[in-house]
Design a protein that fits this description.
heterodimer, A: alpha/beta, TIM Barrel, 13 helices, 15% strand, disordered C terminus, B: alpha+beta, Arc Repressor Mutant, subunit A, 3-stranded antiparallel sheet, two-stranded antiparallel sheet
Chain lengths: 334, 85
């Protein structure tokens, strides 16, 4: 592709040449919107009993897993909502993993048991990512009402005891942002290989509670200073991943280089991008190959490009991310 | 030599892609580089890969392809994309 044999490195989130690829290289698959927690900042607005209408059945989910395998998709993230409350979650993970698909599992850690870890340990799991965005029970439960920090720590240990790679995520809000240093130390002590964070995304519940949750500029300055200092210290055992810091900075990169990534919602809808509202395909009515084709063409659509420009210009635009609009007809009939 | 634990390869019309999932980095490969990765996956000893490709691509300047294959193999090693088996 680059005319020589040199490696042409690109970020997975800004892969170029999507039109020349036969299939996505990464699929982020929300198995459900249902959750055992109702976090005040949740970008998918997940909560107990809030499954999406028409979520995939077990049979449909396994059939979609087979499509991912057949298309040679190398890397799939299983997330939610909370994937651990999906009765067939491990079946899907095993179907994909036994076929060689590398997996990332995103969980809040409330139900992630040693038994689940042991089953996953036999699969090519790239990481289990657990939300660890506080270091005191009081603050954790304010951000994630009803959540137990003790269970989260136990889940992290179960991941490491099973020999699985642990990744943690910290979503900063006005509630928890001051606990970053302690959370960093805790994540390191628990054996995480990566710590993911960045500015709070103005999507879902975070958008609804924006005034209450958005950290102040001063808080963000201290937050960034802590991260920069930790990164400069270069303690190699845990990578800090916080750049681009704001979602809009990541979005700018998409203009020239849409990622070779499909975001699949629990009902099989395919979103163009997390902060945009456009749905570009419905997997109940088309194959993965057709969805990929639609996705690639969608990035040529003036509607989508205009929406991306607006999302870059005004972060408040992200608040509409979960009010889905179908772009499918405009794309398919173009 | 084999692909590292978190490295996946997929053949594409233009050559192929290597995906290092741990760092989530993607590498686009031209046809020669993709052929090298296929040989690695097939278990071909590193020292035999250039000669194999030289023979395979003899009509298209096999010697040049052999040189490229050696250089690419070194790049894979430097980037940590392969393990010595």
């Amino acid at each position: 592709m680059d005319g020589g044999t040199s490696l042409d490195r690109q970020s997975a989130k800004r892969t170029r040449h999507i039109d020349t690829m036969a299939a996505p290289i990464f699929v982020s698959w929300q198995l459900t919107r249902d959750c055992d927690l109702a976090c005040i900042h949740c970008c998918t607005e997940s909560a107990p009993g809030k499954a999406m209408q028409g979520e995939f059945t077990r049979e449909e989910a396994l059939a979609f897993a087979d499509e991912l395998i057949a298309a040679d998709v190398p890397y799939v993230m299983l997330c939610g909502g909370e994937p651990m409350i999906v009765p067939y979650f491990l079946e899907v993970a095993e179907r994909l993993g036994r076929a060689g698909v590398q997996l990332k599992i995103e969980t809040n850690g409330q139900r992630f048991s040693s038994e689940a870890a042991a089953r996953l340990a036999g699969l090519p799991v790239r990481s289990v990512q657990i939300s660890l965005d506080a270091d005191t029970q009081e603050v954790y439960a304010r951000q994630r009402p009803g959540a137990s920090l003790t269970k989260v720590h136990a889940a992290c240990r179960a991941v490491r005891d099973a020999g699985l790679p642990l990744e943690v995520t910290f979503a900063p809000t006005r509630v928890n942002i001051e606990e970053l240093p302690a959370a960093l130390a805790r994540a390191r002590a628990l054996g995480a290989f990566r710590f993911n964070t960045g500015a709070l995304m103005r999507i879902g519940n975070a958008a609804k509670n924006w005034r209450k949750l958005r950290p102040s500029d001063t808080q963000y300055e201290r937050f960034r200073a802590t991260l920069d200092r930790e990164a400069a210290a270069g303690r190699g055992e845990m990578e800090l991943c916080y750049l681009p810091f704001r979602m809009v900075d990541g979005l700018r990169q998409l203009l020239d280089e849409p990622p070779a990534t499909l975001l699949v919602l629990p009902n099989g809808w395919v979103k163009a991008s997390a902060p945009l509202s456009y749905v570009v395909a419905e997997l109940r009515h088309c194959s993965l190959s057709e969805a990929w084709h639609n996705y690639c063409r969608a990035w040529q659509s003036p509607l989508l490009v205009d929406a991306l420009h607006r999302a870059i210009a005004d972060e408040a635009e992200h608040a509409a991310a979960n009010s889905w609009q179908k772009l499918e007809l405009a794309v398919c009939n173009a | 030599m084999k692909l590292a634990k978190y490295v996946k390869f997929r053949q594409e019309k233009f050559g192929g892609v290597l995906f290092e999932t741990r760092s989530e980095k993607v590498y686009a490969l031209n046809p020669t580089a993709a052929a090298v990765v296929r040989e690695i996956q097939a278990g071909t000893p590193e020292g035999e890969i250039p000669a194999r490709l030289e023979a395979e691509y003899a009509a298209q300047d096999g010697e040049q392809i052999g040189r490229e294959a050696r250089a690419f193999t070194q790049q894979l090693r430097e980037q940590g994309l392969v393990d010595e088996s």
